[in-house]
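Cross-check.
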Amino acid sequence: MIERTKKSLFIEEIGEIFWFSNEQFHAGHRVWLSYVVGTLPVHVTLLAVLMTAFAGYVI
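Predicted model, tokenized:
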């Protein structure tokens, strides 16, 4: 009986740890996503400049 309780407590703990790390992961993902969306114009501009420079170099 005690062993079973220990086991279920252990499973609950693992579940909580997993849930917490999952929450942390999602929070980090949201931050990363908002950063990417926020800096998207910069990336697009840089890409356009690079493409133009590359095209000019090739031609």
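Helices lie at 2-38, 40-58. The radius of gyration is 24 Å. Passed to J.P. for a second look.
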